[in-house]
Amino acid sequence: MFLAAGTGNSVFHLLEAVRLIRPVSLVALGAGTIWTSGPRLVVFTTRKGFGDVMKVLVAVDSITTLDILLNEMIARSWPAGTEARVLSIVEDGDVPGKLWREEGYEISAVRREMHRRGEQITASAVERLRRKGISSRVVIMRGNPEFLISFAARSWPADLIVMRAHNRKDFRSRLLGSVAKSVVESAPCSVEVIRPREKTDGFRVLLATDGSAASIAASHAIAEMSLPENTEVRVVSAVNSMSYSLEELGLTGGTATEGAHRAIGNAVQVLSAAPLKISAEVIAGSADRQIVARAGHWGSDLIVLGTNERRGLSRLLFGSTSAAVASRAHCSVRIIRRSETVNGLQQSRKAA
Length: 352
Known about the structure:
Blueprint: E1 2-5, E2 12-16, E3 25-29, E4 33-36, E5 43-46, E6 55-60, H1 63-74, E7 83-90, H2 97-102, H3 108-131, E8 135-142, H4 145-155, E9 160-164, H5 178-186, E10 190-194, E11 204-208, H6 213-223, E12 232-239, H7 241-248, H8 255-271, E13 277-284, H9 287-298, E14 302-307, H10 312-318, H11 321-328, E15 332-337, H12 347-351
Parallel strand pairs: 1-3, 2-8, 6-7, 6-9, 7-8, 9-10, 11-12, 11-14, 12-13, 14-15
Antiparallel strand pairs: 2-3, 4-5, 10-15
Helix pairs in contact: 1-3, 4-5, 6-8, 9-11
């Protein structure tokens, strides 16, 4: 089913994608976009062809989350031509009981809730982003957010997903919610998990590197970010505690420590082209724990790390460093996917 309509000057799209094996249904409000629904994929094209612009998918679950993400985005600088797509996903459990009763427990109750949320988010987001120089659309989908956020990012395609770490207010508030954790692990592009800043003076970025191609990509991503004046960057590389101790005692060669120093040197070489205050250190211990601990001790505002994600049994046995850091950090965390090129755009789009 495809339905197009318009409401005043608002532009947002309502998309139901409950199951992959069924055709999706779509309600689109506003002009300029062509949507095609199919049994496994939603393909959408615009009148504007693909260009080398930054595409940011902003995933929100409430107005509170929207405010947090927009405040963070507006506080930063973005490349000229940056586009945003504000995505909110309605699950059937989000629909108020009164609305279900009014609609006789029909699917129209979900559609009404999607319309309501679309209008609410459009009113809050589109103008604020426009004043920042970011064009935007609002997209409302129905289904499971753990799957649909990554699905929407892949379909657009997005260069970066921005989302909140959690929506809790108890002692678990620093932990990563299940939706954010799933997106961090499955997203096709880079992901930034936002936590509100606790200070307003200065800006500190901690870059974790292991010398891999993904870490080099993370270094380039920082070098090309539009960061505040006098931003400080601390480059860290972790060495296994046992290897570090044995090397310090002279019982083994300094291979691990030398590798960490090379990784730092490569990162610093990339960063030196940008107007940044750079420092570095080798740290001993579990990579994810030490990254989080150093970031907290140093007062980082943002952690950046590349990811060479494990898959299947390897992830089950050893876990994901990027997911662990995103879950435990006190500050925002940006995870750079290897598919990202040095200018922050996907290689796959350039190939297209």
